Amino acid sequence: MCLAIPALVTELLPDDMARVSLDGVSKVISLALVDDVAVGDYVILHVGYALTRLDADEAERTLELLDEAAAAHLAATAA
Fold first, then answer.
1. Domain carrying residue 15
2. What pLDDT tens digit does each residue of the chain (79 aa) get?
3. The domain spanning residue 26 has which CATH number?
4. What is the reported pTM?
């Protein structure tokens, strides 16, 4: 199973690269597959590549759902 997650672009780098934030963790990724990305945009990230830009509201809803799923998993395994 593959998982692509929203990531916030925090810095544009040379050679179609960018730095993104994943829940506070910084990672350098490739923007080679996506045009016109700016700092502050959300991208869908999969194995180090941005696949597409994502609306900020949709990105935040998706991240909230991932947080809820993680919390539910922790609660279930702690019981």
1. 5-78
2. 678 899 999 999 999 999 999 988 999 999 999 999 999 999 999 999 999 999 999 999 998 998 999 899 988 988 6
3. 2.30.30.140
4. 0.87
